[in-house]
Amino acid sequence: MPRVSNESNPRFTMEIPPLEKARLLRAAALEHTTLKDFMLRNALNAANSVIERAEHIALSERDTEKVLDLLDNPREPNANMVAVLKGRRGN
Hints:
The protein is mainly α. The protein contains four helices and no strands.
């Protein structure tokens, strides 16, 4: 059964197969850092990338111009949109 994370405990244990650990130790040594610092830095970089991809949308210049144009010049609502809006307002 998985253990629940205790946020007050900064420890994190992880079993790493010997070949993978040797590779991580070699990479850490090449960067003149400890295994802990190497893994933490790279894990945080990976976490930041995942969060960035999940929380941000990148638009092309063409799409950005289209969105800005729609904000400046909104279209008139069609019958379906009017019906949806009336339904949400409880009218």
